[in-house]
Amino acid sequence: MRELKIVRNIRLGIKNLVLNGLRSLLTMLGMVFGVGSVIAMLSVGEGASQEALEQIRRLGSENILISSIKPVEEESSPQVRILMSMYGLTYQDEQRIRETFDAVRTTVPVKAVRKEARLGARAMETRLMGVTPEWFDLVQRPLLAGRFLSYQDEENHAAVVVVTEAVARNLLPLEHPLGSFLQIGGEVFEVVGIVESLGEQTAGVQAPDRQEDVYLPLSTTRERYGDMTVRRSAGSFMRERVELHQIIVRVDDIENVEATAQAIEEMLGRFHRQKDYRIDVPLALLRQAEATKRTFNIVLGSIAGISLLVGGIGIMNIMLASVTERTREIGIRRAIGAKRRQIVGQFLIETVVLSCAGGMIGIGVGVLIPHLITYFAGLTTVVTAGSLILSVVISLSVGIIFGLYPAVRAARLDPIDALRHE
């Protein structure tokens, strides 16, 4: 019986709203845009956060990235520019890290050399990456064709390379990319594999790989290119000696990552007279990004909440006007025996129906906007189930909170005064 009364009151509320259709529609627009903006802004924030978090995860939560950097004083001093500059990580650094710390499971030394690669008339500026076979275990990238570098390649100083998909598309023939021979800096190498590169800048950290990379055994890189490079610019040249450009350290357990990174930094500080290295911990970046994501969502939700507040005030305003217009109706209902709680229920149901109808339309708008953003702007957006549930809860809450005062005011009207109202 009680359920029938609720259904009857809902039908009566919808009927009253339909009688003033245009006014009800204009009132709902506040809820439509409020709910739509909440979903759209949270989806944009979620998409950006997830993309950043995924990029950091690709660096490896158990990895520590140590990179050589040129000291600031050497970059700015004109006297040093005409001499040989020696800085960065060394082979001894890699050996010390591998042998000193029990938590270190694997270390991968990396040597980078920029050279032009040629195949016939095609040419491309590439970055040669001298690595050990473990590199492909620590920085996992999909193998598209052929094979990775092997321990036999490293022992034999083999003249073989693994190239990225971008290099293969620019230089290699489409029919037989494997087995082709690339001329790189005056040396000839056989292509034995092609990998997909996902390298990109993430939270200020350069990923270990780039689109223009060519991987070859570290022993081959040392033998054929050495540790000395010459840079020419504006009629001058500068010689640089850098043994290793990066060391990737894999720790045995994620709980030991930050402590091991701190210990490595202290050890390197004892053997380097200047700060010519940088240590990046993807795990710390991941935690920082997750905290930033929570703050970002709170800020976006607060901004969108202002639109909902405006929509709720609009609903309250229209319901107060409705109470004034229907004062005589309220007096008649009270005169024939309607109780105050029934009057409250009638107007409260109308407000909830109004806000929920606007909320449902707003959900549709909020789901559509992220798709349009992704299609036209190319940004990643993610509509989560949490944002949809939050929108439904907000719609109900706004209807109840902003409809309660008009409903109580209607119920408190004196029946005699209400009947006399014109």
From TrEMBL:
<dbReference type="GO" id="GO:0022857">
    <property type="term" value="F:transmembrane transporter activity"/>
</dbReference>
<feature type="domain" description="MacB-like periplasmic core">
    <location>
        <begin position="24"/>
        <end position="266"/>
    </location>
</feature>
<feature type="transmembrane region" description="Helical">
    <location>
        <begin position="21"/>
        <end position="44"/>
    </location>
</feature>
<keyword id="KW-0067">ATP-binding</keyword>
<keyword id="KW-0812">Transmembrane</keyword>
<feature type="transmembrane region" description="Helical">
    <location>
        <begin position="375"/>
        <end position="405"/>
    </location>
</feature>
<keyword id="KW-0547">Nucleotide-binding</keyword>
<dbReference type="InterPro" id="IPR003838">
    <property type="entry name" value="ABC3_permease_C"/>
</dbReference>
<keyword id="KW-0472">Membrane</keyword>
<comment type="similarity">
    <text>Belongs to the ABC-4 integral membrane protein family.</text>
</comment>
<protein>
    <submittedName>
        <fullName>Macrolide export ATP-binding/permease MacB</fullName>
    </submittedName>
</protein>
<dbReference type="GO" id="GO:0005886">
    <property type="term" value="C:plasma membrane"/>
</dbReference>
<dbReference type="Pfam" id="PF12704">
    <property type="entry name" value="MacB_PCD"/>
</dbReference>
<feature type="transmembrane region" description="Helical">
    <location>
        <begin position="343"/>
        <end position="369"/>
    </location>
</feature>
<dbReference type="InterPro" id="IPR050250">
    <property type="entry name" value="Macrolide_Exporter_MacB"/>
</dbReference>
<keyword id="KW-1133">Transmembrane helix</keyword>
<dbReference type="InterPro" id="IPR025857">
    <property type="entry name" value="MacB_PCD"/>
</dbReference>
<keyword id="KW-1003">Cell membrane</keyword>
<feature type="domain" description="ABC3 transporter permease C-terminal">
    <location>
        <begin position="302"/>
        <end position="415"/>
    </location>
</feature>
<dbReference type="Pfam" id="PF02687">
    <property type="entry name" value="FtsX"/>
</dbReference>
<feature type="transmembrane region" description="Helical">
    <location>
        <begin position="298"/>
        <end position="323"/>
    </location>
</feature>
<dbReference type="GO" id="GO:0005524">
    <property type="term" value="F:ATP binding"/>
</dbReference>
